[in-house]
Specification:
Length: 255
C-alpha cells in the first residue's frame, strides 16, 4: 500500500499518475484538509491590492485556487509577475488563466522546489520600493508558514503585503478509519509525505502509534527531519516530481 497524504485534490492527481505508472496499490489518505478563509473580507481587500503590486508570490496550488475565487479579479488581467515555488503551483496558475510569460519558478533541474530555489530566479526583480503580495495559507493554530523569502525581499528594500487564501486543518477520522490505518501500518504501508504539517496531523490522529518499522518517502529535507523526530524507521528524500518519486519507489526493497 502506498499512502498519498497530500490534500485531497492533489492526492487524487498523484494517485492517478501512480496508477498509470503501474503502482496500483497507491491510495489517497489526505492528512491536510483545505477550508475557506475565516476572514473573506481581508482576502478580498488583498485581491484589490494586487493591481498595485509588482509581484504576487503563491506558496502552493491551494493558495492559487483560494486567491482566484469566483469573486476575484480575472487572472488573465494580471500584469504583475506571479512567483511559484514549484511546478505544481505554476500549473495551478496556468489553469487559473495566468499567462505563462508572467510566471516565475525554479528551473526543472533545481535540486529542490522551495523558496530558496525560487529566490535564485526572482532576486534580480527586487529593487527598493518593490511591492510583493504574499498569498499563503493558515494552520488551525494560526501559523502561516516560513517567512524566509519575505525576509529576503525586505532586506532588498522591498515592501511585503500578505494575505491568507485558505486554511489548513487536520482531517477528522472515526474509530473505523483509525483502525484501518493502523492495520495498513501493521502491513507495512509506505507513506508519501509532502508536508511536515501532515506528519503532525498523523501523530494527532494516531496517538501512541509506533513508526519504527514504517517507511516514509518525503519531498524535502525539512520533512525528513519531521519524520525522523516522529520516529519513522526508514526515510528516503526525493524531489517533489513524479519521475523522482517513481525512481525512489523502484529502489525500495520488496516494493
Amino acid at each position: 500500500m502506498l499512502l498519498v497524504t497530500r490534500p485531497a485534490r492533489e492526492a487524487g492527481v498523484w494517485v492517478q499518475a501512480l496508477h498509470a505508472a503501474g503502482w496500483s496499490a497507491a491510495q489517497a489518505l489526505p492528512l491536510i484538509d483545505i477550508a475557506p478563509v475565516a476572514d473573506p473580507a481581508a482576502l478580498q481587500q488583498a485581491r484589490l491590492q494586487a493591481a498595485d503590486c509588482d509581484a504576487l508570490m503563491f506558496v502552493s496550488a491551494q493558495a492559487v485556487q483560494g486567491f482566484f475565487g469566483p469573486d476575484a479579479p480575472q487572472a488573465a488581467a494580471l500584469t504583475a509577475r506571479c512567483w511559484a515555488p514549484g511546478p505544481g503551483t505554476a500549473a495551478a496558475l496556468q489553469a487559473a488563466g495566468v499567462p505563462m510569460g508572467l510566471i516565475d519558478q525554479p528551473p526543472p533541474h533545481a535540486a529542490q522546489f522551495d523558496s530558496e530555489a525560487l529566490w535564485a530566479v526572482v532576486q534580480p526583480q527586487l529593487h527598493p520600493g518593490h511591492r510583493l503580495l504574499l498569498v499563503r495559507g493558515q494552520s488551525a493554530d494560526g501559523r502561516t508558514g516560513r517567512d524566509w523569502l519575505e525576509r529576503q525581499c525586505l532586506a532588498q528594500g522591498g515592501h511585503v503585503l500578505a494575505c491568507v487564501a485558505y486554511r489548513r486543518c487536520a482531517p477528522q477520522w472515526d474509530a473505523a478509519t483509525a483502525q484501518r490505518v493502523r492495520e495498513w501500518v501493521r502491513q507495512g504501508a509506505v507513506w508519501l509525505f509532502s508536508s511536515s504539517e501532515g506528519l503532525q496531523h498523523l501523530s494527532q490522529l494516531l496517538p501512541g502509534q509506533s513508526w519504527a518499522q514504517s517507511r516514509a518517502l518525503v519531498s524535502h529535507p525539512r520533512i525528513a527531519l519531521s519524520a525522523r523526530q516522529q520516529g519513522f524507521g526508514e526515510i528516503i528524500t526525493h524531489r517533489p516530481a513524479l519521475d523522482d518519486l517513481l525512481r525512489a519507489l523502484s529502489e525500495l526493497p520488496n516494493p
